[in-house]
Write a structure and sequence with these properties.
Number of strands: 0
Strand content: under 5%
Largest sheet: none
Helix content: 55-70%
Oligomer: single chain
Order of helices and strands: HHHHHHHH
Mean pLDDT: 92
Length: 174
């Protein structure tokens, strides 16, 4: 069974990025902090889906490596074109924003990142409101057949994440 807490932490990193960008005195340090949290949201999402696929995830912040692992190991994560094209930039946002005092992420890149990472998370079910695919009662019951008998998700967020993880199985694809 997948540990939903990993998905929740990824989503909270995204929310932290959103909130930091709203701070009135956002300067270069704030832009770097926003970029860092966006990178963390992507990294944690990819790692969560890999773990749910039974893949042992290495201790890495390399988004390109995690994206390749996602493609090659049956992960249910859906990579957007933007994520695929920006793996190197996202990886730099993890280390350079924290350790290179001269590194500054441009506001336009941060704002584009916020939009694109938000799209990536929503596409992968990391959102508070119930996915349209799960609004019919029979959809939740079919999904629940993938879980241990006594388990029931506690929130729409959990239903959403687990739908993405088990969608192929529900559709008869394994």
């Amino acid at each position: 069974m997948c540990d939903i807490r990993y998905f929740r932490r990824a989503f909270l990193d995204y929310r932290a990025a959103e909130n930091l960008l709203k701070v009135p005195e956002n300067d270069e340090a704030y832009m770097n902090a926003v970029a860092y949290h966006l990178q963390q949201a992507v990294e944690k999402t990819l790692k969560a889906f890999l773990e749910c696929a039974g893949i042992t995830v290495p201790n890495t912040h390399d988004i390109d490596k995690l994206a390749r692992m996602t493609k090659n190991n049956g992960s249910a994560a859906v990579l957007t074109e933007w994520i695929g094209e920006k793996t190197d930039m996202l990886t730099r946002w993890e280390t350079d924003t924290r350790y290179d005092m001269d590194y500054c992420v441009e506001e336009e890149k941060v704002r584009a990142g916020l939009e694109e990472v938000g799209r990536f998370l929503e596409l992968n079910g990391l959102k508070e409101t119930l996915r349209e695919e799960l609004c019919a009662p029979e959809a939740k019951e079919r999904l629940a057949e993938c879980f241990p008998r006594a388990y029931r998700p506690e929130s729409d967020f959990e239903w959403n994440c687990l739908y993405q993880v088990y969608r192929r199985r529900m559709e008869g694809g394994g």
